[in-house]
Amino acid sequence: MPSRQQGGWRARVACWAVLCLLLWLPAAAVLAAAQPGPPPLRDYAVDAWTTRNGLLHNSVRDMAQTAEGYLWFATWEGVVRYNGVEFTAYNRGSTPGLRDNGVGALYLDPNRRLWLSDSRGNLGRLGDDGAWHYLERAPEWPRALVHDMAIDGQGRMWLLFEGHGLGCVHPDGRLDYIAPPPGIPLRASFQRMAIDAAGDIWIGTLEGLVRYTADGKWQRYGRADGFPQGLVWPYLAPDGTLWLAAGEQVFRRRPDGRFRLAHALPGAGYFTSMLQDREGQLWLGTENRGVARIGPRGLEWLPPESLTNGRIASLLEDAEGGIWIGANGGLFRLRETLFTSWTRRDGLGGDYVRAVLEDDAGTLWVGGSGGLDRLGADGRFHAVALPGGNAQVPSILSLAQGRDGDLWAGTFADGVFRLRQGRVVAHYGPAEGVPSGHVRVIAVCEDGRVWIGTRRGVVVIDEAGAQPVPDAPQGLVTALAAIGGELWIGSVEGASVRRADGRVERIPLEDAGGDPRTVFGFHLVGGAVWAASDRGLYRIRDGRLARVGMEQGLPVDAVFHLLADDAGDAWITSNRGVLRVPLAALEAAADGSGARLPLQHYTEIDGLPSSQGNGSSSPSALRRRDGSIWVATAAGAASVAPARLDRYAHRPPPPPVIEAVSADGRALDWRSTSSLPGGARLAVTYAGLSYLLPERIRYRTRLEGLDEDWIERGTRRDVEFIGLPPGSYTLDVQAAHPGGEWSAEPARWSFEVQPLWWQRTSVRAAGLLAALLLLYGAYRYRVHRYQASNRRLAAQVEARTADLQAQARQLLEIDRERAGLLEQLREQAEAYARQAREDALTGLPNRRQFDEHLARDIALARRGAHPLCLALLDIDHFKRINDTRSHAVGDQVLREVGQVLQGERRGSDLVARLGGEEFALLMPDTLLEEAQLACDNLQEAIRRHRPWAGDEELQVTFSLGLVALRPGEGMEDLYRRADAALYQAKHAGRDRLQIG
After folding, report:
1. Which range marks the domain in which residue 613 is found?
2. Exactly one of 917, 918, 930, 953 is catalytic; which is it?
């Protein structure tokens, strides 16, 4: 029993910890609000997977992420690999398979190799060939579950056996088993073990903490050391900090080696998993209370409804900052979202929000089906009573603030309310001159008059009361805006404007195309008025109309609201999410640039409570003074802060991987296969290993040897090639987030397609020989006939002299035909030989001849230690020449480029066309400085050349990648370095030389 003094000491420590935590929470919240960083837990999206989605078992014991980016999850029915879209299962029945389905732990060693253990004491490692390679157990090893594993500083792998002791795998493969001595409760171990920098092993058990020192001594910790009785286990954070979970408390090891109470969470129950993320925040998984996070915002609990009840067995932060939760009830992922959702849980009277407004005092008002709400200082919404309505809670459709500071609220069926300091001071309905129903918009002019949009036209309220506006549209009014002393009116009849002198003019939006019917809003941006309609956006500037719609890249017809932020972007609301597009691009599209809008499309996956925004209400979106954007949706209000946009948008491109290859429907071991039969139908599956928004990842491929440029694949994760001609190919795959950069390092697979039997050189040579033999046989037959005729003529020489002369002339003609035929065959043979080594379009040596010269010169350079340089040249934007001026012009440009290169080359250099717009220059006995000068002269010659293909306006440039041969380097390595240098030149702006 502990002494009374010890119990009092622990009570005082606990009280001080709780007090410090309570005092720290408000300060942490203010600090978090002032500095950009992770959002509060309530703003995380929670994704869930179970056996219905491909998991082998709903209990996820352990997790790991390998170097290439795959996520791995250990279950009682095997291990699964996840690429962001689908799971790949590995168990006893898969190929490659496991020795046992009950996977105990996963571990990444210092070389980022994945290890797993199972319930029978097996230890396996995933090899580069994709197969599992197991270590053979020593006889003394228990056939028991391996709880956990870790590698110490000497490279030894330590294993924690359930119900037994420790196992040690030495770097040389020796296997040792270390049984615990009496008094060490290792048989009641928990599945957590950590090795500190000193090489000491810390082991969690159900009866306290155990330590196995580097010199082989055992030590037990318990209540006498300040820990509560029962379960205590360690966690080694990425920064080397050693944490201990003990009951409802978390201890941290100090530099002096002592443990100090860091956090106490009364009522949390047992902690079962822990994670320190890259932001330094501490995540805690519990036995049955879910997940908590301790960080700048203090203590936060994940909403209970987000996870299933049960133990949180494992926590993992992936390379992109996503938090993965392995529980007894499935797999969960916490993902930061761009938008914050505001719903009934935050105090809103209803989730169907129609209007949002910030008044002059900075107070936020929200109107919707649940009435009128005001955001309080406590971060929650509070209802504002609106008495006198026909409904118990009037449905708010519109909000506006008058020049005197009063708030105006338009309703669905209860007229218009006027509020002062949150209290109703006036109500306008049919008796006061405001038609009942559908007050969707309210506008306030500079002179203080209030304009009301109703289902029967526009009503103005001033000191004289409410009066209808003559000459204004008399149908349902859906938009009003007071801009520059004029009133802009949108309705189901189109757009109008009431000038300062009272005249109402209709704006013929249809003249700009699109045939609009309903206008939802007018917005002054950059000196122009933009009208949002059911056929896109219309710009009215200086009396001129322009339209931006689906033809320019908008994904929807109907758009409701347009806002400009401080970063130069426009935010557009619609029934299918929120769009963000640079204002400059929007203006260019309205000016007729023809370029597609580079927009970002946000939906529920980005945190919106609903993709359905609200139109025909006002204002349905706003930009607050702090720069945040607020949007009214059919399931609540949504907001986004600029700081979170920066955090959310700047993501590294997802690393691409090639996952599977099949030929004619049969799977190939593509890692070890580089030769394919001719005529095969080749299918390649790939993935971008990102887990933020995997459904939106874009892909592009390039098959070197066939494609001249990258081919966009959209979100497709596979590509097929049918009937590839014989030759060598390299497939490159790149991935990118929407609007993001392409991955710098493509996934790459090189292979060779073998020719079909009739495409083989030997078969073609045999065919040519057969044709020659046939011609020779025909010749012999003709000669035979000639000799027979001579014999007949000799017998009839005297009687048929005239006939003999005619036949002699015929034979002479036949002989001339034979000679001509043989000459034709010789010319064809010479042509075939030229075609095999010469480019037909430019007359330059082709790839085959160039490779022969390069191999020969490399061999000569190695024997004589002579310098050798290689330059790869690629015509810039050649595809654009073909697309804009025709392929005939493109072919002529290729011929002229070849002529310029051939004319400017030095006598010892070799210029060749490798294919498409790519040329090569081989410079033997040339130092790199001399080669650079020669390349500069070539570029200058190309720039001087005019005209190109007879077109004075056509400008042709090319980029060069130049390399010098290194000692011991082969042809393929030289090519690859030159190609990489060319790639850098093109990405650095083109029309330049890059030395590799």
Report:
1. 351-519+602-649
2. 917
